[in-house]
Specification:
- This protein has 12 helices and 12 strands.
- It is α/β, with parallel strands linked by helices.
- The protein folds into 2 domains: 3-129 and 205-328, Glycoside hydrolase/deacetylase (TIM Barrel), CATH 3.20.20; 133-195.
- Strands 1, 4, 5, 6, 9 and 12 form a 6-stranded parallel sheet that branches. Strands 2-3 form a two-stranded parallel sheet. Strands 7-8 form a two-stranded antiparallel ribbon.
- Strand 4 (69-71), helix 4 (73-80) and strand 5 form a beta-alpha-beta unit.
- The longest helix has 19 residues, at 237-255.
- The protein is globular, with a radius of gyration of 20 Å.
- The structure holds zinc ion.
- Residues 96-97, 225, 229, 265 line the site of zinc ion (ZN).
């Protein structure tokens, strides 16, 4: 059992969690991010993207609704722009990438709990069965017959594959995300050659425009996650501008209304930079989201870098982490 899970169980047993739940929250906005909802073991691709099963997601929403105001994308915009005073802790729910399970699994649970969320779509993937780089890396490393691979770009790395393949997948994903990986297409070519693996033909994996419009009509917000999901910090300002501008245009044409929010792909500090932030603001994005944790408070609120964090699927850990973040502004150590 992990140290955090042990702490969560102890806190629950001792009743500390219940005391924290009664204690007043600080003013702020906790923005939670998901990628996929469902059973992680059923995928041949990146399993780490699954943050909850439908049952776990349902438990999370019920818990959040009981203790906080869960706000819509429009309400979040009012809070961020200070049209509404930040008097207490608000919760906002977001989804990156636009996988089909966002429509088939997450949407019904959101609607049943009268919650809304913002979904960040990648127009290039909408309605397709494409396999993006993170899923391809996971597939190639899990299925290769090799017991180790050596990659030269952007710097040499050897990854052992004879023990835990999931660990190897995470190592390769971190390697891909390096800020100096400026020839990412060539790196993927190298990886395909090295693993000697062929990708399977798959059915549609991403929600389509009709489903996105239906979600939007049901109160969900739609935002951009760029046109092709590059790591923006790895590409030129010109290409960054195209990714941000073109995706906004395509989504607006297909959804039929203006969009104003952007989630930076990967969203870690090296995944975007100050150029990205300026570009995004100048192109009309009034809310831009990173993804490396934290709580947005009246003191640190930055519309060009709204902090978001992962959620934990284990219910006790989810409760504990949510309470630490909303009452103390940090996660337990
Ligand atoms: Zn993404």
């Amino acid at each position: 059992m992990s140290k955090r899970l042990l702490l969560a169980r102890s806190m629950k047993t001792l009743g500390i969690l219940r005391l924290m739940e009664m204690y007043k929250s600080r003013p702020g906005i906790l923005i939670l991010n998901h990628h996929r909802i469902g059973d992680s073991s059923s995928t041949r691709f990146d399993r780490k993207l699954f943050s909850a099963t439908t049952d776990e997601f349902d438990v999370q929403l019920k818990y959040l609704k009981k203790h906080f105001d869960v706000v819509s994308g429009g309400e979040l915009q009012d809070l961020v722009s200070r049209k509404t005073d930040l008097k207490r802790m608000y919760i906002s729910i977001t989804f990156d990438d636009g996988y089909l399970d966002n429509y088939t699994h997450a949407l019904p649970v959101l609607l049943a709990n009268q919650c809304t969320a913002t979904f960040f779509l990648i127009p290039q993937y909408v309605g397709t069965g494409l396999i993006p780089w993170w899923d391809e890396i996971a597939y190639l490393l899990r299925n290769t017959r090799k017991n180790k691979i050596s990659i030269q770009l952007p710097v040499p790395i050897t990854i052992e594959l004879d023990s835990d393949r999931e660990v190897a997948i995470q190592k390769m994903l971190q390697h891909y995300k390096r800020p100096d990986n400026v020839r990412s297409d060539e790196l993927m070519e190298e990886l395909r050659r090295e693993t000697e693996c062929v990708l399977p033909v798959v059915e549609r994996r991403f929600l389509d425009w009709k489903e996105a419009r239906e979600m939007n009509a049901a109160g969900m917000s739609i935002g951009s996650h760029t046109q092709t999901h590059p790591i923006l910090g790895q590409i030129t300002p010109e290409r960054q501008q195209w990714e941000l501008e073109y995706s906004k245009q395509v989504i607006e044409e297909n959804i039929g209304s203006k969009i104003y929010s952007l989630a930076y792909p990967v969203g870690t500090p090296g995944g975007f930079d100050i150029t990205t932030e300026h570009l995004a603001r100048s192109l009309g994005y009034s809310m831009c989201f990173s993804f490396y944790g934290g709580v947005n408070t009246p003191r640190n609120m930055n519309p060009a870098n709204l902090l978001r964090g992962n959620t934990n699927s284990a219910p006790d850990l989810f409760r504990t982490e949510t309470m630490f973040l909303t009452k103390l502004g940090r996660l337990p150590h």
